[in-house]
Amino acid sequence: MNQTSNHQKIAGRLPVVAIVGRPNVGKSTLFNRLLGKRKAIVGDRPGVTVDRLETECLIGARECVLVDTGGIGEGTHDLMQPAIDAQVEAALEIADVVLFIGDGKAGVTPVDAAIANKLRRHHIPVAIVVNKAEKPNSELEFFKLGMGDPIAVSAAHGDGIRDFVIHLESMLPDLVESTEDEQAPLASIAVIGRPNVGKSTLINAWLGKQRMVVSDMAGTTRDAIDSDLPYRDGVVRLVDTAGQRKHGRISDIIEFVARVKAVQAFGRADTAVMVLDGSEGVVEQDMRLMQLAQDEGCALLVAVNKLDLLSEDEWNYFAERLNFRMRGLADIQIFRISAKSSKGVKKLLDEAVRASKRNRFEIGTGELNRWLQSAQEAQHPPSDRGAVVKLKYASQTSTSPPSIKVFCNRPQALKTSYRRYLEQSFRKTYKLTGVTVRFTFTGGNNPYAPEKKH
Ligand code: GDP
């Protein structure tokens, strides 16, 4: 396989590199080496509460998403093989390039050979790197796996990393910029939820009968296919969340792949519509997906589907439980629909478009600072061991989701509860239902205030 010439083009997202390999080959050490500066950037984002399996990073001059499949299947199996199978399966689902790590001290093991066999059956570019290769030529044995030239590195000491980065960079597919004359959608909506809740049925109801969406494309494509739906005087983009389709045997893989695909979809969407099956309950996985949508900056709506299967009592019970479970999330609208009979689907779409607009909310600096003062007067920030905490000035740094930077005399002293209060107050004042407002606090001085001594 000539891997370096394997330059395909992918649209609208970053290339995905998935790391696979046996336990203890040093995956996390190499992962951390490759991440470099990115960690600081992640730490800068408020509200990111879900553990990250995927991380954006720079490989040479190229941006990509690095995914460690190492966690999949571990802990649930004593045997290594099923865990490895799960990793490889997940990697094949999500990756543009697989990064296969071997152990130079241990040499080629039967598990490595099994991984290579699995990978060879697919036309996916593989970069093979041999870690712990402190002894000269310890990578040579890995030639026999037929995965191309193995590169020797020592993740712990940093040897070989530069060569390896150059190699990996050359294998990343190119990104295609979206064409300029393309009509900007009025809203970009991702429909999310567990398999079988009725996502495809809902999308079909929106699209109309003439434009069916293929509902089960597992393994046939790694790339998402978004569809544009004519809406009023423009279009609404329905963002494909390919990973939420039904596939895989091991639930770990389904959730892992669904997550990575969901993150990619959230990057292209401004609103996420979470579909729940009204005849089933709400589970932890649903909550995680909703939290992820918000962390990734999407406005969120919930659609409880299969209304036709529910009696009024059952609905009330479901709604009560749902409201209880969602109490930690931004106030979210809940809709009752039956995708199958198209009941409630039009209203849901209208509301999703409105939520997209709310997510793009912009506020003038004067108005923002008047709000900040009144919010502070209504509820003072708790003092810091007797010292007054004062929010001095705020400015909006971006939108979708609205992000507000607040200059504060003691940013470290601000508790999460106060941050939450501000977010809620802001959301309420400007009627931003379902929108996450990101507040960051900085100790820097108000850039517009005259210099003065404290
Ligand atoms: P997806 O995996 O989330 O895309 O789910 P599908 O759209 O493929 O739907 C899964 C199953 O639920 C199919 O058999 C649908 O016909 C059924 N379904 C979808 N919406 C409804 C609904 O409103 N009521 C009922 N009774 N069944 C529905």
Short description:
The chain is built from twelve helices and 17 strands. By secondary structure, the chain is of the alpha/beta class.
Strand tally is 17
- Cα-based radius of gyration, to the nearest Å: 24 Å
Discrete helix count: 12
Percent in helix: 25-40%
Second-tier CATH architecture of the largest domain: 3-Layer(aba) Sandwich
What's the overall geometry? globular
Largest sheet: 6 strands, mixed
Under CATH, the topology of the largest domain is which? Rossmann fold
Tell me the number of structural domains.
Answer: 3
Distinct small molecules: guanosine-5'-diphosphate
The computed structural class is alpha/beta
Which stretches are poorly predicted, pLDDT < 50 over at least 5 residues? 1-8, 37-51, 75-79, 212-221, 245-249
- Mind telling me the CATH superfamily name of the largest domain? P-loop containing nucleotide triphosphate hydrolases
The CATH class of the largest domain, by name, is: Alpha Beta
In angstroms, what separates the terminal alpha carbons? 67 Å
